[in-house]
Amino acid sequence: MTSRTTHRPEPPMPMVPAGLPEIFDHTEDGWLRILAVNRPTVPLVEMRMAFPLSQEVLGHQAELAVLGESILGGTTSRDRGELASAIQRIGGHLSLIISKDRAVLSASALAEHFGELCALIVEVLEEPAYAKAVVAGDRRRVAEQIVLARSQPQVLVDEELDRRYYRGHPYRLGLPSQASVRRVSFEQLPALHSAVLERRGGVLVVVGDIEPERVLDEIGSLFGRWISSVTTPQVPVEPLTDFSHRPIELVNRSGAIQSNIRIGSPAPQRNEKEWPAAALANLAFGGLFSSRLVENLRERRGYTYSPHSSVEHLLAGSRMVIALEVGTEVTAPALAEVTYELARAALLGFDESEIEDARRYAIGSLALATATQSGLAAMLATLALDGLEPSYLEEYPKALKDCKPEDVAIAARRMLSPSATTTVILGDVDKIEGPLMALGPVSISKGPLTSTTPAKGKPASKATVKADGWRCS
Amino acid sequence: MPAILTQPLLERTVLDNGLRVVIAPDHAAPVVAVAVVYDVGFRSEPEGRTGFAHLFEHLMFQGSANVAKMEHGRLVQGAGGAFNGHTRPDLTSYYEAIPANALELALFLESDRMAALQLDQENLDNQIAVVEEEIRVNVLNRPYGGFPWIDLPGLAFDTFANSHNGYGSFEDLDHATLEDAESFYRDYYAPANAVLVLAGDLEVASTFELVERYFGGIQSRPAPKRPDFSEPPITSLRHRSRFDQHAPTPAAAIGFRAPDPVKELGATLASAVLAATLGDGDASRLRRRLVYEERTVTDLSCYLGTFSDPLSMRDPLLFQVVLFHSGKRSAEQLTQDVLNELASLERDGPEDSELGRVTSKLIAERWHEADRLLERALGIADVTVIHDRPDLYFEIPAQLSKVDAEQVKTAARRLLSQMPCVVEILPSDSQVVSDRNVGVGS
User: Fold this and answer.
1) Gap between the Cα atoms of A168 and A164, Å rounded
2) CA count, 13 A, side-chain hemisphere, A68
3) What pLDDT digit, counting tens, does each position of B31-55 carry?
4) Where do the structural domains in chain A lie, given as residue ranges?
5) Residues B57-75 pLDDT 10s
6) Using the beta-carbon criterion (under 8 Å), do A110 and B2 form an inter-chain contact?
7) Which whole number is the average pLDDT over A296-307?
8) A23-228 and A248-466: same fold?
9) Which of A289, A308, A329 should we substitute to test contact with B (largest number of B Cβ atoms within 10 Å)?
């Protein structure tokens, strides 16, 4: 038997992705951007059509939720089951995901059936039925799904953070109320369908075992009528402006054995020059397993299973969110540690070795994320909506390499200062309020309200600010 | 029929210490996936130590002879990679997805913890606390926590191995000792009890050399003899309900014994086709009927194996139907609805077009999985551990395409010949918290 090598290899140099794949970039009919990449790793084809949501569409949370379900509820020539059968027959999937700022039609199929996939998508885009009876069933089911979603504490605390962080902006709206969903009429959906899907600014991405020329042919011939029937451009969503600091907000969940902590702070957008340094600051703070957040809160103190921070890029602005679920009894000590780590990073920045680890991870994870057909398709669609060219995939690793510790320190000062954060905690207020008061002023809202209609612009929960521990609810 | 990709060439070898090694080259992107899968899962943990296999998985990240605590994550992510581990009834898996030039680093890390794990009391105490927080997040502080993966085996099986809660009780976790960890490591983490799979942008000969250099010197230990975990069929109807204070609406899980994936692979794949015919997508029979027509069910799924992973399991395992419903129909009535649909399939079989589209979709899903290099490496490792046949991973699409209507009828008949097990979750406003309520198995 040979003796075992216990020599530790030197950390490899970060790899810049081996050049961009060849990307066909074509603008059809003067407005629809089409990106196509031939990547024959498996005999599939992935398609993403992404559309930014306009300011006016964003207020209609209930209608959007039903639209996402009813768009696959049938066309003028097929009912839901027939449509689903046709998609299944080509080994495909088709869904419309509507998130805070965008609608993404996501589809895939066995590559040999690409033409049929396109024909089915066009049928859904051009001839959706939105039949009265179908919508009636869908809105009831959507209401039931919302009840299920809102029974999850992590969904509730995310909503509470949004409501507070995005005060005064449509992004504050969480899931719609059951009542508002049940009021959605089938007659509202065709107009909303057009507003969401038929507007300029959209992008269509195809990645898979298919030649780009064939993609352009199929789309040109099948999508032609839909592409030329573009409607009036709508108002883009207004940018985020109000980032004023607020006291810690507690939201009651009686009897909870864990507290869900969410902390938000403004981050640069991907097209800003501060972004690469901020990305590194986020990774070193809480984005890596070896980050300060995980090292302290999990591996040293055992307070939590999966603490992490991440940056969400929305069209109106970007935000870093720190998320952790901790035992009720250690809620205040855990928040104290997070605040300490934030302040330390904001004041002193990060060590070079921490920045180097973050840099290598950022570069390598980009290569991993774009190594699959679906990952590359999603990435190209996201970049296009952000107004970035595919060449970003090459430029970003270079920009990361050029980041200096001073750049990261500046980004950390802006993004990680405790004074820049908004903190929401969902938990058993009776047990956590007293200790938390030691950390600063807290405000308390009674609990997540499950039947309000925040779309009307009223605050969903009344909060009273106080620092003295006297609760007047 | 959809095109079947030419099967990629798999290279395999067995080191002198018994470690099985498979290399699956693919030069599409400059990335590599490394999977080390040990032939031990929570079925093998000792009585009084529920949750130990999973706790031990956490300990594998706490340092080894030449790797300090926290270093595993720092080195992998610092090389631009991702890592994790998971524990299943029959397997425990450790894996990295990394840029191709970090292959040697991943081999160093995996070999060091296979050769010489470092265990100490402080790290054990710390990880017990972390695992308990994990259980609070995933089971205790959320609706439907552990449903049905903890509940259903607890009802459908009688032996400790098959029926106990794989996450473990807090009492058992709190009693875990360093001696337990040392003997678990000695018994189950031998090279001869593991499979190493490397997939991606690799050169075969030099990769085998690297593997030999890092793993070849690990001391040989005998692989444990795996006990027979099989159980006799269930002969009477079993039903259990529990209250869930967090659940807003009721739910039900119906379990049947599924075929043995090793001895009856064909029947297993036919059962997978049956499950998809019943519950995969809006065209499936149960969804069309219960969700869209009768509107008694909000959401449902139908699958084989504890985590929908029949190829990573040995006998016994379950075929399960999981329904989240409004309460308009009782669990008993919904069970009857499922049995009626099964009876119709047993009598008439799937229509030709139905069978064709269901298998097309299942095959496309296999390719989706294979496109994610890490899942490909793990999938190859799973079938190597369970079936000792790495090529099987790429043979599944072709085998799925051969499943015929008769086989699906037979699969349905087999379920209908059994007494189903039904676990019911009832929403509760009461504050009652009992052992059963927290999902701790019998």
Assistant:
1) 9
2) 21
3) 999 999 999 999 999 999 999 999 9
4) 23-228, 248-466
5) 999 999 999 999 999 999 9
6) yes
7) 95
8) yes
9) A289
Whether B5 has a pLDDT exceeding 60, the answer reads no
pLDDT digit string, tens, across residues A68-83:
999 999 999 999 999 9
A80 and B220 within 8 Å at the Cβ level: the answer is no
pLDDT digits (tens, 9 = 90+) for B266-283: 999 999 999 999 999 999
Provide mean pLDDT across the span B152-180.
97
Asked whether the predicted pLDDT for residue A52 surpasses 80, the reply is yes
Q: Domain locations in chain B?
A: 11-215, 238-427
> Residue B81: which of A43, A92, A364 has the nearest Cβ?
A364
In the CATH hierarchy, which fold is given to the domain comprising A248-466? Cytochrome Bc1 Complex; Chain A, domain 1 (3.30.830)
Residues of B in contact with A12 (CB under 8 A): 79, 99, 101-102, 104-105
Task: List b or e across A113-128, with b for residues whose CB sees 16 or more CB atoms inside 10 angstroms.
Answer: bbebbbbbbbbbbeeb
Select from A15, A150, A257 the Cβ nearest to the Cβ of B101.
A15
CA–CA separation, A227 and A25 (whole Å):
16
Q: Which residues of A touch B396 (CB under 8 A)?
A: none
Task: Identify whether the C-beta of residue B201 lies closer than 8 Å to the C-beta of residue B26.
Answer: yes
pLDDT at A230: 63
Fold of B11-215: Cytochrome Bc1 Complex; Chain A, domain 1 (3.30.830)
The partner residue sitting opposite B2, judged by closest CB among A6, A43, A360, is: A43
A88 interaction partners in chain B (CB closer than 8 Å): 280-281, 283, 357-358, 360-361
> What band does A328 get if pLDDT is binned at 50, 70 and 90?
very high
Which residues are B183's β-sheet partners?
none
Q: Which CATH superfamily is domain A23-228 in?
A: Metalloenzyme, LuxS/M16 peptidase-like (3.30.830.10)
- How far does A217 lie from chain B, in Å, by closest CA? 22
Residue A207 carries which DSSP code? E
Nearest CA in chain A to B353: A89
Q: Residue A36 forms beta bridges with which residues?
A: A24, A206
Q: What percent of chain A is predicted at pLDDT more than 90?
A: 75
Tokens of A373: 């057909």
Model confidence over A386-416: pLDDT tens digits?
999 999 999 999 999 999 999 999 999 999 9
pTM of the prediction?
0.92
Best B55, B76, B357, B438 residue to mutate vs chain A (most A CBs within 10 Å): B357
Residue A79 CB neighbours (<10 A): 17
B238-427 CATH: 3.30.830.10
Q: How confident is the model at residue A10 (pLDDT cuts 50, 70, 90)?
A: confident
Greatest extent of chain A over all pairs of C-alpha atoms, in Å: 76
Matching CATH topology for B11-215 and B238-427?
yes
Confidence of residue A59 (pLDDT cuts 50, 70, 90): confident
Q: Which of B132, B134, B136 to mutate to test the interface with A (most CBs of A within 10 A)?
A: B136
Is residue B6 over pLDDT 60?
no
Instruction: For residue B288, give the H/E element and its range.
Output: none
Q: Does A8 touch chain B (CB under 8 A)?
A: yes
Q: What is the pLDDT of residues B86-125, one digit of tens each?
A: 999 999 999 999 999 999 999 999 999 999 999 999 999 9
Q: Which two tokens stand for residue A340?
A: 């300490």
Residue A256 is nearest to which of B104, B141, B291, comparing CB atoms?
B141
Instruction: Identify the helix (H) or strand (E) that includes residue A200.
Output: none
As a whole number of angstroms, the distance between CA B430 and CA A339 comes to 36
What HEC string does A275-338 produce? HHHHHHHHHHHHHCCCCHHHHHHHHHCCCECCCEEEEEEECCEEEEEEEEEEEHHHHHHHHHHH
